[in-house]
Amino acid sequence: GGARLWGGRFAGGPAEALARLSVSVQFDWRLAPYDLAASRAHARVLARAGLFTNDELGRTLAALDDLEAACAAGLFRPTVEDEDVHTALERGLLERLGALGGKLRAGRSRNDQVATDLRLYLRDRARGIAARLVELADALVEQAERHLDTPAPGMTHLQHAQPVTFGHQLLAHVHPLLRDLDRLRDWDARAAVCPLGSGALAGSSLPLDPVRVARELGFASAAPNSIDAVSDRDFVAEFLFAAAMTGVHLSRLGEEVVLWTSQEFGWVELDDSFATGSSIMPQKKNADIAELARGKSGRLIGALVTVLTMLKGLPLAYDRDMQEDKEPAFDAVDTLDVVLPALAGMISTMTVRVDRLAAAAPVGYTLATEVADWLVRRGVPFREAHDATGQLVALCASRDCRLSEVSDDDLRAISPHLEPEVREVLSVRSALAARTTPGSTGPKAVADQWGDVADKLTDW
Ligand code: ARG
């Protein structure tokens, strides 16, 4: 381990078992571009502080550029000897600059470095996730536009409840995604604080300029407390909450698609390119994307719990436990990066079976509420209206007929208020058309909602 960053006071190298436990470069190597960006800002600050000559600054910046290109091309790779990304990159500088490569470490610690790198990384990748979220929301919005007035059964407890428009149901999956987008934006504002300059925990005796560094790296401000700066992983936990919440939304959407594509529902047909088959049953067409979206929400929730549990007992400031923040954070990013595009493709290419939806919409006496509301408009207290309608449903169920198929005499026998005109409300179309209040499922209200949602999405 020739390139270790801390060998001076130690008699020998670390035990093999320690090195194997301690090494993080196999996963934190993806922070390299961010670590290099922070190194550039730090080099300039050291030069302004008079600690680097202009020539030294120029050579250091050139070496950082060269190292970055070598990393990107895969020509510079971490070795098993490199404890972490910071160690590996310092080795790269030493290879290029000799002793000068060891000057950049002045005034900084891996503690403020790694906290800075991880903020830069997550802020960057969160923008990509937001773009993928918009694409999924767009796919739902496009499907919704085709079904603003397509009748469908609305469900509670997975039982037929009241007719809805299918566009309304699809848009109901867009609003959670809009909240996820808001959450990421709110999160970013809190994550935009730069720890660099906090050193190990106490700041620096060198004349650094944390405010300038923060600005150069795209942060809104420099950390106001050096101890907090290296201790704080709220930005990781909060990012992981946002990711887990998104995971739950995707899981619920996935579960609905699994139901919708089942033989029993048959509401939706997936495009062949977004469905999978079976190795033994030639007829199978499965919604694996939807199931993986549902299944992978587990690891997103797990990542949040991992980080909160790791943090809860830690004294300030930095503890090595905190190295365990990275794999869950990276896994959450990677998971959303693969789930979101697959879901977006599946949704935008699926075919909605309007005939099946329309036929299912009135099944299960979903128009019973229309009868009760009709009685209410005639002055009958809802309690009585509910009871009379319940008797009507029971009668129909015993005869296996529709609500509208009961004779005038049978209606009157249930309640003197149940006059033949009640049949006017007993169609899915009229039930939907009657729902005009903002946010409700009638075609007119849904068209308004669709416009608002589409506007919001174009702002993202
Ligand atoms: N690999 C470490 C991490 O990810 C970097 C910071 C190490 N700091 C230290 N004092 N050992 O947290």
From TrEMBL:
HAMAP family assigned to the protein according to its UniProt record, in alphabetical order: Arg_succ_lyase (MF_00006)
Organism from which the protein derives: Pilimelia terevasa
Metabolic or biological pathway: Amino-acid biosynthesis; L-arginine biosynthesis; L-arginine from L-ornithine and carbamoyl phosphate: step 3/3
Family annotation (PROSITE patterns): FUMARATE_LYASES
EC number: 4.3.2.1
Catalytic activity, reaction form: 2-(N(omega)-L-arginino)succinate = fumarate + L-arginine
Domain of life per record: Bacteria
Domain Argininosuccinate lyase C-terminal, first and last residues per copy: 365-432
Sequence ranges assigned to domain Fumarate lyase N-terminal in this UniProt record: 20-302
Record keywords: Amino-acid biosynthesis, Arginine biosynthesis, Cytoplasm, Lyase
Protein name as annotated: Argininosuccinate lyase
Biological process annotations from GO: L-arginine biosynthetic process via ornithine
Family, similarity comment: Belongs to the lyase 1 family. Argininosuccinate lyase subfamily.
Localization per Swiss-Prot or TrEMBL: Cytoplasm
GO molecular function, one term: argininosuccinate lyase activity
SUPFAM superfamilies, per database record: L-aspartase-like
Any one annotated GO CC term: cytosol
Xref: InterPro entries: Arg_succ_lyase_C, Argininosuccinate_lyase, Fumarase/histidase_N, Fumarate_lyase_CS, Fumarate_lyase_fam, Fumarate_lyase_N, L-Aspartase-like
